[in-house]
Amino acid sequence: MAENTLTHASTSTPAGLEALRTSPAAHLAEAMAAATVSGERSVALREVAFAVQLGLRAEPGSASAAALEAVLGLPLPAGYGQITGDPAAAHVLWLGPDEFLAVDVSRRQAPGAADASAAALAGLPGQAVDLSANRTILELSGASARLVLEKGCHADLHPRSFPVNTAVSTQVGPVPVVLHRTSERGYRLYPRASFADYLVRWLLDAMSEFSGEEVR
Asked: Model-level pTM?
């Protein structure tokens, strides 16, 4: 009985609960690492787990938008595909005319992540919701990253149409994602958590050509 009580107590603390967190693609971490290809045909896949993701709604140019921008320290993107901020830290993706996704990959999500933004909207139309558990982030990088995506991405990924620091809602295979081109050879994919397993396996299969091995 004493042992059971101790176990319950240890998992009731914030630190204990944090230790139990498992990201949607954690069980495939070894498979992703093993699929890494180096050299001229390089490509790698990893999960960026537990990054802060806030769903924001505000009319651009409104008092609500100004309130959110003051809290974020960043302007909201002005139009389709645009990004503001630093992809290596805090940044905001345009999802729709009045819909945005604020992301911070430099911080681990914790309870209350959306509180400051929600408080800034008090009495104003708009919304700020913590969506960190809604999607995970998969990072695909390397010389062959674009070729891997082009096997099943519905968007035109040519640099003329999809330059660095552009993000769009699209599909990769049958999976809806937000796709963000973060660098010349780097992309982030935002699938719903429930689709993470399928998408990782789809990407691993698409990567196998570049290593000369088939994923089974």
From this structure: 0.88
